[in-house]
Amino acid sequence: MSRSRKSASFIPFLPFKSIQSSIFFTFSCLILITVMVISLNSYRLSVDAVETNSQSYVQEIIKQVNSNIQSYIDNMENISMLAMTNKDVKYYISNNSFISKGDRRPYEKRISDLFQAILYSRKDISAIMVFGYNGFSVSDRRITLLNPYTKLENQSWYKEAKSKGGQSVISPPHVQNIIQNEYRWVVSLSRELKSTDGIRGEGIFLVDLNLSIINDICSKINMGKKGYVFIVDNSGNIVYHPQQQLLYSNLRSEPIVKAAGAQSGTSFTVDDDKGKRVYSVQDTNFGWKIVGVAYTDDLIANEGTIRNSILLYAITGILFSLLLSLFLSYRMSKPLRILQRDMKKVERGNFDVRTNIEPINEIGQLGRSFNLMLAQIKNLMEEIIDTQESKRKSELMLLQSQINPHFLYNTLDSIIWMGEQKKHEEVVLMTSALAKLFRASITKDKELVPIRVEVEHITNYLLIQKMRYDEQLEYEIDISPDIMHYKTLKILLQPFVENAIYHGVRNKPEPGKITIRGREQDQVIIFEVEDDGMGMTPEQLEDIWTVHDKQQKTKTTSGIGIGNVNERVKLFFGSMYGIQIQSEPEEGTTVTIIIPKIKE
Amino acid sequence: MRIQRATLLMTIIFIASVVYIILYFKLFIPTPEQEHNITVILKEHNIRSDFWQTVSAGAEAAAKESGVNITINGPLQETDIDAQIRLLEEVLEQKPQAVVIAPINDDRVTAEMEKIQEAKIPLVIIDTPVSQNSAPALVSNDHFTAGMQAGKVTLEQTKDSPKSVIISDFVNSGVSAEREKGVRKALLPFSQSVYGTYYNSDSEERAYIIAKTIMREHNDLNAIIALNESAALGAAKAIKDANKTGLIKLISFDTSVYEIRLLEEGTLNATVVQQPFNIGYLGVQTVLDLLDGKKVKPVTYTNSIVVTKENMYSPENQKLLFPFIDK
């Protein structure tokens, strides 16, 4: 854990302790950036596309308007050509002298009829007139009453046509007041009529186009709710504008200079307090520029919708992918967390843990390696325990098999003494018993011996002791014959009998008795070594066990300690088996040894 | 485990598609933009009235420019007070978002307007000011300045020695009173410049008689200032009858075909013309500003233009005198 600060995160710049948060954070950043870039880009692209579309749409409309107006102007041009080539007109205005009004009349009638015929077929034309320099004039009306207060020479269409010498002139829209009591908004086409030789000018021809035609064309086009069309001439004068009054009184402004200077077929954008709008300019071939004005928010009515929808999509996308990345990072880091949890268990000492990681990827393999490693560690540890146990067993074995030297001296002393007494039989008996005792302790090949053998051994031992202590010691061996064939640890009972003699019976003034019993009970075999000797106080009893806890070397007086025997039993048969001691001072001690039934 | 994961993924995909579909339909049914509805009530809504038709054209222009819906209404005659009150009552029921009104000068109309104000509907008055406590914003021609302009033209025409009379319609006409004040202010520095003000009760006949009488009474009379059309037409007739065309300068206000003819022939020397298109336009603009929560000027004046025979066919004045292309 001390290194956790150093290795806080697996990517240095991510301040997260868990892989899940790191993955989640990285994913989220990636998703956020990607979604934002894509959304912004698609928004920009779609708006651009819509804008380009609408611009070309406006251009298209303006072209239509242009060709419409153009066709009307062309028509006027054609009418003027008709008049120019008409012989009656030529004659009427030529510099001849009609004798009387009656002479003029047929001409006037014929010309008037011609003009009327044209006018019938063309509703857009409001008047056709010819003004001869000779002072005569004729129109499409039967009787032409000119406005007495209007001077022909002052009319701009008249002056212009005269100065242009035969070329047709298109006037800006104006109120035609040349005819009495008629005030009509018109666009006039006028041209000077030449004499037959084509040199002298002889009169002015006038065709008036109803301005309402142009007004209709311009006002009926649909360029969004607020879009409109206006017309300027080359010198930047307004020819037509739906809000001409406002322009004249400066309540509105229009980038007329810019529009007049713009190339035909081009567009430019103006963005002011009236809103962003696109001006598309088209030239006509008679000197007008038709300008279409379209408000972008009108044409791109759904710009807001585009923005909102992209925004919403982006947000939904982000939310969804965040959830997904949360889920994915959880899934990805889950095996790691399982591994971590299992490792923690091992840390706490449980080597039986087996980690189970589903996917067979790197982490799965890691888990499998971990399992293998754990198994090996467990094996090694078991091996170590086994080694330790067997080492201890052999140690204890060694200890057990050693015959207490005091016992040996005493026995030998007794033999010598008996020899001196010439008690040969006793000598033989004791020596043979001692020999058997020795043989039993020397045979190292088997740890476990049948109870029969053990009983023999203890009988031999007690025989020797009986001969030594004589009247002082009584003993009884009561082993159930049913258990004789079961196995027991070698030299299991001797230490307790030894203790019973040395600590219990020997120090007693009157003779003592040692009873050894053996019986089976359920699945265990119970041995009891009972004496009626001195007994032990609880303190002393405690002492027996504590002595055992200390190092073996400190006490050697009684050969091997009770504790060691207990340990040996437990080592061999398991912890549920062992030794119990019950003791009353002045009453005696009973040692109970419990071992499992082990068949031959 | 496998099944679990699959279910989880399926659930996520399902939720995602549900969200997607909901959004798809929500977003692509275009939510109708909040549209403004404006009602304009004129004094007179009648194709014969060039003035009011031009006002309404101006109002429509402003509405189109801002992309709002506009309803234009008005009585057929300027004198039909009941009709205008009815219209105002309808407005109160329909509750448009804003109202522009050219009120007929009547207490009942004023009361209706107050009701509209109480209903918190933005209100703008055009053309005719009303005497009201919390008067709404006004867009009107500056009649006083127009009168001054008429006075100045009179001075020009009479070479700074005006001997004039003023023919007005009614004593209590607000517009005429303002015009008269302006005229008198312009002529004040010149002694004996105005012989008096006469009222023709909007009758051409009476104006003719008045003009005739004055001409007889004042030999040195050199200018008649007619504050309205009927006065101008009557006076013109009198001048023509007395063969004094050009000698007695006739200055008038507003425009009509008759006045244009008089202007062309020279009987009428100048007329001071309002810009009704601008009144309509600015009226709607002002009410839109109110709707947007902007501060508006309590009074917005539009200018008048002096039209004489010489400049009557200039591009600007043509538009004023002949506002409609289709006629």
Task: Describe the fold and architecture.
- The complex is a heterodimer of chains A (600) and B (327).
- With 600 residues, chain A is α+β, with helices and mostly antiparallel strands.
- Among the domains of chain A are: 129 residues, 2-Layer Sandwich (Beta-Lactamase), CATH 3.30.450.20; 38 residues, no CATH class; 195 residues, Heat Shock Protein 90 (2-Layer Sandwich).
- Helices cover 51% and strands 19% of the residues of chain A.
- In chain A, strands 1, 2, 3, 4, 5 and 6 form a six-stranded antiparallel beta sheet that branches. A five-stranded antiparallel beta sheet of chain A has the order 8-7-11-10-9.
- In chain A, a hairpin with a 3-residue loop joins strand 17 and strand 18.
- In chain A, helix 11 runs antiparallel to helix 12 and helix 12 packs antiparallel against helix 13.
- The longest helix of chain A is centred in the N-terminal third of the chain and has 67 residues.
- The N terminus of chain A is likely disordered.
- In chain B, the strands form two sheets. Chain B has a six-stranded parallel beta sheet with strand order 2-1-3-4-5-11, with helices on both faces. In chain B, strands 7-6-8-9-10-12 form a six-stranded mixed beta sheet, sandwiched between helices.
- Chain B folds into two domains: 128 residues, Response regulator (Rossmann fold); 131 residues, Response regulator (Rossmann fold).
- With 327 residues, chain B is of the alpha/beta class.
- In chain B, 47% of the residues are buried.
- In chain B, helix 9 links the parallel strand 9 and strand 10.
- In chain B, helix 3 runs parallel beside helix 4.
- The interface between A and B is large, with 45 and 45 residues.
- Chain B: Belongs to the bacterial solute-binding protein 2 family.
- Chain B: GO terms for molecular function: carbohydrate binding.
- Chain B: One of its GO terms (cellular component) is cell envelope.
- Chain B: Keywords: Membrane, Signal, Transmembrane, Transmembrane helix.
- Chain B: It comes from Paenibacillus dendrobii.
